[in-house]
């Protein structure tokens, strides 16, 4: 039995009905495929995520950026160091607060992000290709809704466990 038929034939299985496992397996598969692609553009998968967030909100503080992408702020520094070292972002002092840094995407970073985004979209299209017409749109819409108020409600005010905790000792 293949992995795809195992999942489809396992309705009623606790494991295959568990949302955490389903999302974890989906994330694992996407990370495997997408990590290889973004490395070709000079970044890690976390670097790609951070780069997208910077493009969407260029004057964002590092703390706001860490919260937006669900990464520990100390780990964000390492991700930004990696992106800066690759010439994809630049950090400059915030004129309003010299202790803070404004992170900007460089022209090279913009080109790399655009190319990586095209490759990522191709992977996502391949993933969703097995769905019926319109189901991919429904999946994306449902996921966008779930990461909003419903997710906040089940977190119940507890501090978020970031998807990218700080590096261990």
Order of helices and strands: HHHHHHEEHHH
Helix content: 55-70%
Radius of gyration: 18 Å
* Uncertain residue ranges: none
Spatially, the strands of the biggest sheet line up as 1-2
Largest sheet: 2 strands, antiparallel
Kindly state the mean pLDDT as a whole number?
86
Q: Specify the number of helices.
A: 9
Strand tally: 2
SS-based structural class? mainly alpha
Strand content: 5-15%
Q: CA-to-CA gap between the ends?
A: 42 Å
The general outline is globular
Would you mind describing this structure in some detail?
It is a single chain. The protein has 169 residues and is mainly alpha-helical. The protein is built from 9 helices and 2 strands. The protein has a two-stranded antiparallel sheet. The longest helix has 22 residues, at 107-128. The mean pLDDT is 86.
Key terms for this structure?
169 residues; mainly alpha; two-stranded antiparallel sheet; 9 helices; 2 strands; 63% helix
Task: Summarize it.
The chain is mostly helical. It contains nine helices and two strands, in the order H-H-H-H-H-H-E-E-H-H-H.
Protein topology:
Elements: H1 3-9, H2 14-17, H3 19-39, H4 45-56, H5 62-69, H6 73-85, E1 89-94, E2 97-105, H7 107-128, H8 135-146, H9 149-155
Antiparallel strand pairs: 1-2
Helix pairs in contact: 3-7, 4-5, 4-6, 4-7
């Amino acid at each position: 039995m293949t992995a795809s038929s195992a999942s489809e034939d396992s309705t009623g299985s606790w494991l295959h009905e568990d949302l955490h496992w389903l999302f974890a397996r989906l994330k694992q598969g996407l990370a495997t495929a997408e990590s290889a692609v973004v490395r070709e553009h000079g970044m890690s998968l976390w670097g790609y995520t951070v780069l997208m967030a910077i493009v969407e909100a260029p004057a964002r503080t590092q703390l706001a950026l860490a919260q937006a992408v669900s990464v520990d702020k100390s780990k964000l520094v390492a991700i930004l160091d990696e992106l800066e070292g690759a010439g994809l972002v630049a950090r400059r002092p915030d004129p309003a607060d010299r202790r803070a840094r404004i992170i900007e995407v460089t022209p090279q970073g913009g080109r790399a992000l655009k190319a990586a985004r095209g490759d990522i979209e191709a992977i996502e299209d391949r993933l969703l290709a097995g769905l019926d017409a319109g189901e991919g749109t429904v999946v994306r819409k449902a996921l966008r809704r779930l990461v909003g108020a419903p997710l906040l409600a089940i977190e119940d005010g507890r501090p978020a466990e970031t998807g990218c905790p700080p590096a261990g000792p």
